[in-house]
Amino acid sequence: MTDPTAKGRAARIPSPRPPADAGPRTDPAPTTASAPPPDVTPPDSLVLRTGALSWLFPRRGALVAVALGLLILVLVALGTFASSTGMGFTETLSGLFGTGDPATVMLVQDFRLPRIAVGVMVGAALGIAGCLTQTLAGNRLATPDIIGVNEGATAAVVASVVGSSTGMIGEWWLGPVGAVLAAALVVLCAGGAGHRGHRVLVVGIGVSTVVGAVTDLVMSRQNDNTAGGVFLWTVGSLSGRDWSVGTPLLLVLLILLPFALAAGNRLQLLRFDDDTAAGLGVPVRRIRALALALAVLLSGAAAGVGGPIAFVALAAPVLADRLGGRSRVPVLASGLVGGALIAGADALGRVIAPVEIPVGVVTSVLGGPFLLWVLFRPERGTGRR
Question: Cα separations (Å) of 174 from 156, 225, 301, 302, 369?
C-alpha cells in the first residue's frame, strides 16, 4: 500500500543539480572597454597644445610656404640679372649686395630691385584676391580680372589722364577707387552676392565688357603721346615702378593680409553650404562682405600699381591649392605663388626678345593654355569640371 504522504514529500524534493562535468558551461561575456575617440586631425597637420590652448599647425602648408619663399628669392636674384645691358651675373650679385662699383650698385638697387619688389607685391595682392573670390563664389573662374574689378580700376586710372599731354598714368590709389565702384555696380546688378556667386560671375563678365569698351573709347580719343603711354600700362607693365608706389602697396598688404587670413579661415566652412556654416557659428553675410571687400581692395591696389595683369589671380590659387592640399583655404600660399609668377614673368619678358615685353603680355600668353587646363581638368574630390 502506497503512503500518500511520502508521495507529497517526494514531489517537494528538488531535482539534483547536474554534475560539474556534465557539459560545457557558458560564462557571461566580459565587459568591453569603451573605444577611443576617432582622430579627426587632418593628415597634413600637427596639433600643438599648451595648457588649455591648442593650435592646428599645417605642416604641409608651412613647407610649401618656405619653398615658395626660397623660390621668390631665387627669382629676385635672376630678375636683377635679366636685362639687355650685358652685365654679368657676378657683377649683378655684387651690385645687389652693395659690394660693386657705385654705378652698378645704383643700377641694381635703385632701378632693378625696386621694380622686382613691386612686381612680387603686385603678384601677392592678385593671388590673395583671386583666392578669396574663388572660394567666395565656389568657382575657379571667379577672379577679379573676370568679374569687372580690374576693368573698373583701369577705367579710373585712364579717366585721370583725359586731356593730358604727358602720357603719364594717374595716381595708383585711383585703382582701388575704380575697383570699389565696379564691384558695387556688379553686386547691385546681380542683386547681392548670391548663394554660390554664379550670378555675380555672369554679371561681372557683362560689366567688365561694357567698362572695357568705354575705356577703349576714351583712349581712342586721346592724342598719340597720351594713348601710347597709357596703353603700355593697360596691358600690365612694371616699367618705371619704384618705391614711390611700392611703399604704399607694402602698407596695404601689411594691413589687409591679417584680415585676409582670418577671412580665409572662416571661408573654409563656407565650402559646405551657408546653413552648415551658420550652424557652426559663422556670420555668413559678414564674412562674405569682408572677403569681397578685401579682394576688391587688393586687386584694385595691384591694378593701380602694375596695371590689369591678367591670369595671375586665376592661376595662383589653383596652383597653391594643388601644392598645399584642400584641407584649408590657401590664402598665404596663393600670395606667394602670385609673387613668384609675376617675378618670373617679368624677368622672362626682359630676355626673350630684343625689346622688353610687358609682364601682362607674358602672363596672358602663358595664361591661355593654363585656362584650358583649368576648364578641362576636374576638381579634386568632386569630379566636376
Answer: 6, 21, 8, 11, 32
Where do we find the cell 616699367?
Answer: 239
Backbone φ and ψ of 226, nearest 5°: -70, -45
202: number of Cβ within 10 Å: 15
Residue 264 has pLDDT above 90, yes or no: no
Cell numbers representing residue 178 in the block: 575704380
Name the nearest CA neighbour of 300 among 81, 162, 154, 165.
Answer: 154
Burial 274-296 (b: 16+ CB within 10 A, else e): eeebeeeebebeebbebbbbbbb
Q: DSSP secondary-structure letter at 240?
A: T
Amino acid at 175: G
Q: How confident is the model at residue 338 (pLDDT cuts 50, 70, 90)?
A: very high
How far CA 79 is from CA of 140, 151, 202, 344, in Å, comes to 30, 28, 38, 7
Axis crossing angle, helix 198-220 with helix 224-234, rounded to the nearest 10 = 160
Q: pLDDT tens digits for 15-27?
A: 555 555 555 555 5
Answer yes or no: are the C-beta atoms of 343 and 362 closer than 8 Å: no
The residue-averaged pLDDT of 343-356 equals: 87
Compute the half-sphere exposure of residue 150: CA atoms within 13 Å on the CB side of its CA.
Answer: 32
Model confidence over 174-192: pLDDT tens digits?
888 989 998 888 888 877 6
Least Cα distance to 373 among 314, 308, 320, 299 occurs for: 314
pLDDT, averaged across the chain = 79
Neighbours of 177 (CB within 10 A): 17
C-alpha cell at 251: 602698407
91-125 pLDDT tens trace: 777 887 788 788 888 888 888 889 999 999 999 99
Cell numbers linked to 371: 585656362
Dihedral sign for Cα atoms in the order 162, 236, 377, 186: negative
How many CB atoms are located within 10 Å of the residue 49 CB? 8
User: Which residue has 584650358 as its cell numbers?
Assistant: 372
**pLDDT value of residue 382:** 44
SS3 330: coil
Tell me if 359 sits within 8 A of 236, measured CB to CB.
Answer: yes
Residues 6+ apart with CB under 8 A from 225: 165, 166, 167
d(CA 285, CA 270): 11
